[in-house]
From TrEMBL:
Residues 1-99 form the STAS domain. Pfam families: STAS. GO terms for molecular function: anti-sigma factor antagonist activity. It comes from the Bacteria. This is Anti-sigma factor antagonist. Belongs to the anti-sigma-factor antagonist family.
Length: 103
């Protein structure tokens, strides 16, 4: 499953995004690639939502990957230590190829 995120990932949109993905994480053991190409803003609340999704995916056996981080989002992931908790690919194509190999 590929999920494209765009705009702002803040307290409001982060909660909606988290609820949407939680449904899939709890019901299916699938690989999810989150394409962050369109993310223009990431608040601490948005980062928290992503962290909760990573934790839930591990608990339920879902593989969760990220790709297309802007330099802004990448810097936030690096500074917060979030990048050490997940797998990030430079592009959607690379993510899809690698995820396909993991199955």
């Amino acid at each position: 499953m590929v999920v494209r995120v765009s705009g702002q990932l803040d307290v409001t949109s982060g909660n909606v995004f988290e609820k949407f993905l939680t449904t899939h994480i709890h019901s299916e053991k699938i690989a999810v690639v989150i394409d962050m190409r369109g993310v223009e803003y990431l608040s601490s609340a948005g980062l928290r939502s992503l962290l909760l999704l990573v934790k839930q995916s591990r608990q339920y056996g879902t593989q969760l990957f990220f790709c297309n981080l802007s330099s802004f989002v990448n810097e936030i992931f690096e500074v917060s230590g979030f990048s050490s908790l997940m797998t990030v690919f430079p592009s959607l194509g690379e993510a899809v190829r690698q995820v396909g190999m993991l199955r």
